[in-house]
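Re: the request from the purification team.
They wanted to know what the chain is likely to look like in 3D before they choose a buffer screen. I agreed to run a prediction and write the result into the notebook, where they can find it.
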Amino acid sequence: MSLFLLGLVLLNGCATLPYDYPRPISTAIYLPEKTDMGRSIQPYVAQHHGASGFYLMSSGLEAFLGRILLIDAAEKSLDLQYYIFRADLTGKFMLDHILAAAARGVRVRLLLDDWRETDRMDWWLTMMEIYPNIEVRVFNPFGGLRSMFLARPFQAVFGPERLRARMHNKAFIADNSVAIVGGRNIADEYFGASSDVYMRDLDVMALGPIVRKVSADFDDYWNCVLAIPLKAVVSYQPTTEDLMSARRDLEIERDSLKNSAYGVQMQESDFLKRAEAGTLPLVWAPAEVLADDPLKVINPGGSERTGKMERQLRDFLESAQSEILMISPYLVPGEAGVRWFKKMRERGVTVKIITNSLASTDAKVAQIGYMRYRKDFLRMGVQLYEMRPMAGPRRAEGGSPGKARHLWVGSSSHGALHAKLLVLDRRTVFVGSFNFDPRSAISDTQNGIVIHSPQLAAQAADFFDLDASPSRSYRVTLREGDGLVWITEKNGREVRYYSEPEIGFWGGFSGRLFYLLLPESVL
């Protein structure tokens, strides 16, 4: 009976969210060219006839440094939109720099999805919002007793349908002049700073006119009815002692990172030197921003408006004439997706895909959905590559200054693929948050950028080719008898596997069990 009553309390909290809580409407700064950052960009925009500048960030170290440099350079505004923001080593270092920016008058708007493994981040966000110029909102929040163990999973399973859909967007915007969009969340494993797990990922830094569109989409989410001020759902009131403790913790973590091998690599980074000198090798090109409507989570898959991102990407992919290169860590095409790929193959379009292997994935349940269609892909001539565990230059991206505080249940201690990339005809590139699975298409909101540039497409194709190489991936092919073979390379020699490689007994058993029991709708 006590469990039943607890469930009622949790679910009642879901139904009584404070949507009418006061929250002022705000928008991106109107004249970004009047900031130092904006002024420095304008001559290049004029020189390139209104195109935008882009820089692919394949290195976790570069991706972290880029964000820190933008925080420190911001003069008027910082807008951050993320699915995950952890209070780990890199997260606290970023929070420390955000506090410094707010102290010099920068307006900070931090919009986070409300799905988190623990509520420790609620404590940190509450500390942050006490300071002037910082406002925090949570998107599609959970109600009830948020801090209770399993409160969010319980509400997600038994509560309103909207709670099963999440904001998966990633955007980082400084002075409405420079933005970073892509697959990375804010956590050690995405920046090459964890000794436990490495997430191979990709972002693109954008500057110029395209940033106004990234900001406009951020404003749509920020001012949406589902973006609730943190103080409306978290009743905790920090004490003076709490604030002092938080500042001490940030100072300790700041010194810890600076004195680590990762911190040394930050200081010696070629990216840092080029960024400070203004000599980053930018590619200037026309581009478009793609983004879901924020209200998609209220009625997943239920209207034309809620399927916006999926339609945009489908139209984009169908423009391919000769080749599609795809990287998607979670690949669950469904019957409709298989038919679509078959149609593209019948048109003569070469399709090459990199996804996780069962050994490398951090989401084994999603992997099962891919495994159900793997042979269909191979029979139609799609070239499949599965990322090996330990793939990715972890040492080159910063060593291991400290262990990650949080790991997903079932995650590997090895490297996993997390990048989302499309390259069409070696001429056009998409980088964003969209995975090719039912959640991305139907439930969760997504964003990304399409860039029309053969030069940037060549760089993205190099990223693809590196991860598809035998030293990093298994090439999956059909063998006689309708079985599969995984081909890779170790110590310069070809190695073949005739069952799911490097997963051990439990990985193989649980994989087969999930394969038999789980419906595709939950993948």
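For the purification team: The longest strand covers residues 483-490.
Please add any questions underneath this entry.
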